[in-house]
Amino acid sequence: MTIHSDIRPAPAAKATLQVWRGESLLSRLIRQVILPLMGSKRVLRDIERHARQLRRQRLKGEAKPTRRVVRDCNITAREIAGSNVLFVEPKDGAVTRTIIYIHGGAYVANMMIHQWNLVEGLAMQNRARVVVPHYPLAPENDWQPAFAMMRTLYESLVAEVGAENIVLTGDSAGAGLALSFAQLLRDEGQPLPAKMVLYSPWLDLREDNPEQDAYDAADPMLARPVLVWSAKRWAGDTALNDPRISPVLGDIRDLPPMLVFSGTADLLHPDSLALFAKAQADGCDLKLIIGERMTHAWSVLETSEARRLHRETAAFLR
């Protein structure tokens, strides 16, 4: 199923949109065969079944770096504000910038093995030190401990390298947290990172957008029931329409330049379209790249489309 967006940027706006057409054989196999066989969509429709799976996943802890990352990168760990933070940088060559990568997982799941592919791409393609915070998760915590931890981490990095040498990135829920955190920094008059990159962002946790209905059948991975459950646990006593929870509902003016990736086989694609529409209306510096038939979190896969995504990210950050 292919869904085309009819949104195009106005000539005077700083927001731009690009559609990547075509689908590699591997991406098609993942979308049509592998992901359906894995059954994640069935699990995410069943809250009790998901809860059991989540408990098992959380007991295993954060996914360890892949062998390739261990081979090519130096990895050190620090405890910051009570949370484990990993620092990943290429073994050969000088590091030119610091990239904060906030992992996704609906705010309830540990970092998963495939997300190390994204960390590797960020580090190697950009000659960067990638900072990976294992932030406090729901349902044990709402959003506030994660924000506090991110504030401590960010302030330490600004003191070390300067905000102009920091890039803020994230995938899925991590991308939402990145945008919410940047809005908070702006509102408090804090120095902002140089740029931001959001991969398959989850930006509207109300999960009541009727436009999602058109993408549900095309998405082989995500389902609303567990997203709704996760959103309520992350929000806690805070309203779901609060921009700290649903950043697409907040003010996105005066933020760093943003690069956003989304796909038409992603239930959350309307969130990126809504962000683009807001950026277009407000004249924000944002580029949205839409991958036709790309699934949620295609940035963490080992496909030709993901490799192109890494090259585009590197060009944006130069």
TrEMBL record:
Keyword list, A-Z: Hydrolase
Membrane-spanning parts: none
Alphabetized GO MF terms: hydrolase activity
Gene3D superfamilies: alpha/beta hydrolase
Domain Alpha/beta hydrolase fold-3: 99-298
Name of the protein in question: Alpha/beta hydrolase fold-3 domain-containing protein
Organism: Erythrobacter neustonensis
